[in-house]
Amino acid sequence: MANKVALAFDLGGTELRGALVESGGHVVAHASAPTMAVAGSEAVIGQIITLAADILAQRPQAEVVGIGVGAPGPLDPKAGIVIAPPTLAGWHDVPLIDILGSHFGLPVRLENDANAAALGEWRFGAGRGTGSMVFVTVSTGIGGGVVAEGHIYHGRRGLAAEIGHMTITGEGERCFCGAIGCFEAVASGTALGRRATALTAPGDGSLLRRLSANGDVSAKHVVDAARAGDVRALELLEAEAKWLGIGFTNLLHLYSPDLIVMGGGLANGFDLLAPMIRTTVGQRAMPAYRDVPIVRAELGARAGLIGAASLILWKGEAGAPLAMTHDENNNGTPERADREASHG
Amino acid sequence: MANKVALAFDLGGTELRGALVESGGHVVAHASAPTMAVAGSEAVIGQIITLAADILAQRPQAEVVGIGVGAPGPLDPKAGIVIAPPTLAGWHDVPLIDILGSHFGLPVRLENDANAAALGEWRFGAGRGTGSMVFVTVSTGIGGGVVAEGHIYHGRRGLAAEIGHMTITGEGERCFCGAIGCFEAVASGTALGRRATALTAPGDGSLLRRLSANGDVSAKHVVDAARAGDVRALELLEAEAKWLGIGFTNLLHLYSPDLIVMGGGLANGFDLLAPMIRTTVGQRAMPAYRDVPIVRAELGARAGLIGAASLILWKGEAGAPLAMTHDENNNGTPERADREASHG
After folding, report:
1. Which CATH class is domain B4-122+304-335?
2. Gap between the Cα atoms of B73 and A224, Å rounded
3. Beta-carbon separation of B283 and A179 below 8 A
4. Backbone angles phi and psi of A30, in degrees to 5
5. Chains A and B: how many Cβ contacts under 8 Å?
6. What residues in B contact A246, CB-CB < 8 Å?
7. Rounded to 5 degrees, what angle do the CA atoms A102, A108, A109 make?
8. Does B288 sit within 8 Å of A157, measured CB to CB?
9. Disulfide check for B256: which of A24, A160, B5, B343 has CB 3.0–4.6 Å away?
10. Which DSSP letter does residue B325 get?
11. Which residues from chain A sit within 8 angstroms of residue B162, using beta carbons?
12. Angle, nearest 10°, between helix axes B231-255 and B270-284?
């Protein structure tokens, strides 16, 4: 019997991933390739077409009802145009929806990658059942997506929720965007790694430098060292969590969501960061906002793919997957009761 | 012939204002009284009822179709409950919609004061015709309201757009809310007056102190002195405009509106502030956001009343007053061409 599925792509600057996703948000086939990021849009669109063939060959009986794509911004989701992503050379106003629609003869929808991940988490991950949600991804940079009343909050030209470039301080190194004090510049995984690198020296025997083989220390090394009880790493995470708490407090005051979901690479250290994030929010947020749960994302690196698929599969109102039947076999989505690790 | 009008109230901590507002947003009768702010909710509701009688007596032939109220937050606009406004003693979870609805036998709608002013400006003032807008009121504090896709962006419990308590710096005096670096704490009219007071001394012969009769210098004194060419006042406004520019840049990145509208007392100095606001936005905003107009509010102190009335009168989609016939006599609303003083 045929299953209705969406073909989904997550077009990143380093990796291109594709999947077939069925109702309930489950990935039933997937494949990936290193993005030919410097080869221009035609080459990458060729990769998408090749990857699609690979994936469809895994499930020849699948009935593909459309294609959802998450791609780096800036992009115009309504017009279906990738405008000028800094991580993809030679992409300028590429009408990706038209190109893929013509090739495959299927409906195509486009969303920026952070918004796609936010949709994935809201519909099938940590945010399911909530009316509104702010998704924050903390890794190399900081990105985000806001879901309100059942929709991504797009704003003019789809440019809302550029939360990494919200100024939260007057200090710190200049952000690549040119401003001082961007949330991303002080609170990203990159910023954490930079602080850890500055605090240590090659050959100093510290756990941080042993984990990094005496190279630059990354955010992952800090989390690993903190798990081993390293005092310096724990202090670095405490400072990191304070910055995250300041930024999250702003997001509470500005968007008043029902829930904040933290994803990205640094979410691997969420359990270590959460107590100080909550302390900072408790100190800085106005009372009415302090009890909003802040939780870890559930879908990991697949959030963007699953969210892109949902652009095709999901037709319902907030919290109600009207156009989708829930899977009988819930294979892999954690139970909701597990998800409020940080709350309390 | 009867005209359909709304009865509107703007319930402030110092002044209670009421008006009859007809289609097109024009005030056809109004009255006000000093709010009995320490006398509890029953006394103030009695004032509202008395004021309503005064206003209705001015236009006995008017056909009142409902009552719109702007009141201080926090409040729940859907439930119609004023929760606990800091400026009104003895108000705790007051079901204002039910109380006024029972008394008058009319539909009643409630919105917080900043959101009501945002609606007024969007529907009948500087924001008319735009799809989305952020309204910022800069006076004693800083408040705001966000209109997106034809609606106030409410968030959980109507608490979104608490923009005065967005952290934008690590410096400055502690905000009354307890945090450091709130937008309001560094960029409100109060903050400007405080800086002007600290920069001068009673009896120093400065224009600022002459204007203040050697008392504390207010934001209005700074604007007046700057208009007279006072160098110190101009420098104070330049610093003020930089803070406003930092905050407005965040609002662009977070909400991506089509327009920012600045109201409140300090909008009286908008022409003096606008060049440095724009320079700061040009330096700090990412390129795609830099051309968003930032304009002065048009409705002044009446924005809240007119917006409250529109809760009753306005039934249409964004930019289209479907349920209202436009006034033939446009008496008092400036022409749209005048409104982009700052843009260029």
Report:
1. alpha beta
2. 45
3. yes
4. -155, 165
5. 117
6. 167
7. 145
8. yes
9. A160
10. P
11. 253-254, 256, 286, 289
12. 50
Token pair, residue B102, equals 């029972």
Burial class of B32 by CB neighbour count within 10 A (0 to 12, 13 to 18, 19+): middle
CB contact under 8 A, B256 and A159: yes
Residue A70 has pLDDT above 60, yes or no: yes
The topology (CATH level 3) of A4-122+300-338 is: Nucleotidyltransferase; domain 5 (3.30.420)
DSSP structural state of residue B177: T
Q: What is the pLDDT of residues B256-282, one digit of tens each?
A: 999 999 999 999 999 999 999 999 999
| Closest CA in chain B for residue A183 | B168
> pLDDT per residue over A229-277, tens digit each?
999 999 999 999 999 999 999 999 999 999 999 999 999 999 999 999 9
Q: Which CATH superfamily is domain B130-296 in?
A: ATPase, nucleotide binding domain (3.30.420.40)
- Asked if B284 reaches chain A (Cβ–Cβ under 8 Å), the answer is yes
Domain boundaries, chain A: 4-122+300-338, 126-296
The interface predicted TM-score (ipTM) is 0.88
Residues of chain B positioned with their CB less than 8 A from the CB of A178: 283-284
Cβ neighbours of residue A117 under 8 Å, at least 6 residues apart?
Answer: A70, A135, A137, A145, A263, A297, A299, A303, A304, A307
How would CATH label the architecture of A126-296?
Answer: 2-Layer Sandwich (3.30)
Give me the residues of B, 164-223, that contact A with CB < 8 A.
165-171, 177-179, 181
Q: Are the beta carbons of A156 and B132 separated by less than 8 Å?
A: yes
Q: Which residue of A178, A255, A283 is in closest CB contact with B160?
A: A255
- Residues of chain A with Cβ-Cβ distance to B167 below 8 Å are 168-169, 246, 249-250, 284
pLDDT at A321 (0 to 100): 35
